[in-house]
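Give me the fold.
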Amino acid sequence: MEPTQIAQQMIDFYKATFDNSFKAMAMLQEQNEKMVDMFLVQATLLPEEGKKALSEWINAYKKGRDDFKKTVDDSFKKVESFFAGINKG
């Protein structure tokens, strides 16, 4: 087996591992978001400013999560294209 094939298999393995871990983390975050939403509906003593702050925090977390996923996916594409270029050369 060629070294570039081994490297490609390793990249594929790492990408699959990352994707699975990321999906699990996202599911956990979504469950926590549902719990916070339920809390906010029932928390009559919490002022609207506090509810708004929690909602903004959740949205910022989602955006950061999505940006992180995009960055990692772009990095995997760059590495894959690097090894694809080696195979052609």
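The radius of gyration is 20 Å.
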